[in-house]
Amino acid sequence: MPLAPDNYACYGPIIGFFNGVGMSQRILLTVLIALAVSSCNRKAEGQTVAIVNNEEITASELNNELAKNSGVSAADKDARAAVLQRLIDRKLLVQQAKSDGLDKSPEYLNQLRQLNDELLINMLVSRRLNTSQVPTANEINGFEASRPEMFANREMWTLQQLLYPTPKAPAVIAKIGAASGLDEIAQILTTNGIQFTRQTKKLDTAILPPPIFKQIAALKPGEPFVVPGGEKTLASSIVAREPAALSPDQARQVALAAMKRENAQKIVQDRVKSLRATAKIEYQPGFAPRKS
Question: For 215-235, how does the pLDDT look when each residue is reduced to its tens digit (9 = 90+)?
Fold first, then answer.
């Protein structure tokens, strides 16, 4: 049988051994070659919806991609075709990346391990959460009462803000910390040659941790609060507050979601603590944590 040039790459390595083996081995290799030819001549049929350079895209892959696009129905042929084209584009880019050897690079392998770790951890937590009991009505009510910033006292704050490079001089930082308003901070920054930008933002108090909410809510009108962020620092002042309490049904849904997140965090913390107690961990000199 003549070898088609386009398919040679699929079974060429097998042919390389053919001339140097015995009859029984040749029979086995002939079978392997036939299988290779079959696999190289894949067809878009059955569960295979497309072939991209001899690489399959399955109906399962397409359905998963459709599921990620809310509002797109699998029965909508035009939408389905558009999603399939995006899958094909992605497959082509992945093939090019592999052709460039990126799948062998240390950067790729490190990120792959990290993604794999995160996936396994998420699956571990999900399994634990699925076996946990649904909170009772009393537990939900207690949770809402303990988080007034998320429920009964929830507000939308309008913030005036100054964004500026974090000062390096301790004296400047101290002056900013003692300032009574944003205009005073702006004057300190200008005096010290530090450029800043002004902006206005909305803040939902539901996203604030309870201790932070209590601290900010207790500030005097116009009193700033400063949040360092590495290279940039953000100084803010509340200029307007609007009540934004949730309805009972909305509050219950938000409470359940928040309780689930906190339960997941507790599962991870408790499990890590238990695993550390029995794990054997060895450090290279200089990498071990400091003893308290």
Answer: 998 999 999 999 987 899 999
Distance CA 232, CA 234 (A): 7
Token pair 């929830």 is at which residue? 154
Spatial distance between the Cα atoms of 171 and 154, rounded to a whole number of angstroms: 37
Task: Give the CB-side neighbour count of residue 254, counting CA atoms within 13 A.
Answer: 18
- Phi, psi for 72 (deg, rounded to 5): -100, 120
Q: At what angle do helices 77-99 and 59-68 cross, to 10 degrees?
A: 110
**pTM (predicted TM-score):** 0.56
State the SS3 of the chain.
CCCCHHHHHHHHHHHHHHCCCCHHHHHHHHHHHHHHHHHHCCCCCCCEEEEECCEEEEHHHHHHHHHHCCCCCCCCHHHHHHHHHHHHHHHHHHHHHHHCCHHHCHHHHHHHHHHHHHHHHHHHHHHHHHHCCCCCHHHHHHHHHHCCCCCCCCEEEEEEEEEEECCCCHHHHHHHHHCCCHHHHHHHHHHCCCCCEEEEEEEEHHHCCHHHHHHHHCCCCCCCEEEEECCEEEEEEEEEEEECCCCHHHHHHHHHHHHHHHHHHHHHHHHHHHHHHHCCCCCCCCCCCCCC
pLDDT score at 11: 46
